[in-house]
Amino acid sequence: QVHLVQSGAEVKKPGSSVRVSCKASGGTFRSYAVSWVRQAPGQGLEWMGGIIPLFGPANYAQKLQDRVTISADLSTNTSYMDLHSLTPQDTAVYYCAQKGTWGQGTLVIVSS
Amino acid sequence: DIVMTQSPDSLAVSLGERATINCKSSQNLLYSSNNKNYLAWYQQKPGQSPKLLINWASARESGVPDRFSGSGSGTDFTLTISSLQAEDVAVYYCHQYYSLPETFGRGTKVEIK
Fold first, then answer.
1. Shortest Cα–Cα distance, A103 to chain B (Å)
2. Facing residues of A34 across strands?
3. Are A17 and A83 in contact (CB under 8 A)?
4. Which segments within chain A are labelled E, that is strand?
5. In chain A, which among 27-66 make CB contacts under 8 A with chain B?
6. Is B69 within 8 Å of B58 (Cβ atoms)?
7. What's the confidence (pLDDT) of residue A43?
8. Mean pLDDT split into 10-residue runs, chain A, 112 residues
9. Which residue in the set B50, B101, B106 is minimally distant from A102, CB to CB?
10. Total Cβ atoms within 10 A of residue A17
11. CA neighbor of A12 nearest in space, from A65, A82, A61, A80
12. Whole-Å CA distances, A100 to A13, A92, B101
């Protein structure tokens, strides 16, 4: 069973970018889709996009596709989510998920 | 985009009683070539990541108590907790992975009456 470990919390200024990593172990990372989902405080789950590491390229939610980049490094079994031009509305917990297993979540706070 | 409509938004159930959550999709989630419904149910407790309970509309994940069951096909789905336990207090989400973008219901908060 895959185990996903994400990078730590981030505090960012509006207009900046953030990178969140998701390292997989114990499973077949390269062959299954890695999804990125975010959850604003007190809100529901929002799919941001996903990638099958072996094949790429990523697919994105239309509302984010101009600002988000999802990638995967097969050599380290790690997926990355880059979000650009941050606004306070991007404050959320960001999750990666693969085959029903979710990472622990990464809190990103955007504040001036 | 496929819209997932969950109901109710919240419900309070006595310990040992049945809890039923409904999820309706705006499009069919049954893929005819393999006869599978691309619908999952997740449980999220406060401060935790979502946990997959049910896949393919009715396939319980390993380790999930058998009081949790999923049913339905096409556009109408149900998650049932047959005998609510204290540890089942959580928010439950339905999730379609039939087509991109993947979408979630808004969640149903389950509490103890």
1. 7
2. A51, A98
3. yes
4. 3-6, 10-12, 18-25, 34-39, 46-51, 59-60, 68-73, 78-83, 92-98, 101-102, 106-110
5. 35, 44-47, 50, 59, 61-62
6. yes
7. 96
8. 95 98 90 96 97 94 97 96 98 96 98 96
9. B50
10. 12
11. A82
12. 32, 20, 17
Q: Are A80 and A22 in contact (CB under 8 A)?
A: yes
Q: What is the DSSP letter of B101?
A: S
H or E element at residue B93:
strand B90-96
pLDDT in tens, A51-82: 999 998 999 999 999 999 999 999 999 999 99
Which structure tokens are listed for B98? 């039939």
Q: Does B70 touch chain A (CB under 8 A)?
A: no
Token representation of residue B30: 């049954």
- Chain A residues in contact with B4 by the CB 8 A cut-off are none
pLDDT recorded at residue A27: 77
Token pair of B10 as six digits? 């919240």
Quote the CA–CA distance of A80 and A21 in Å, as a whole number: 5
Burial class from Cβ neighbours inside 10 Å (0-12, 13-18, 19+) for residue A62 reads exposed
Q: Are strands A34-39 and B76-81 parallel, antiparallel or unpaired?
A: unpaired
How many Cβ atoms are within 10 Å of B108's Cβ, its own excluded?
22
Which two tokens mark A85? 């031009």
CA distances from B4 to A1, A55, B23, B37 (A): 29, 29, 7, 14
Phi, psi values for residue A33, rounded to 5°? -65, 135
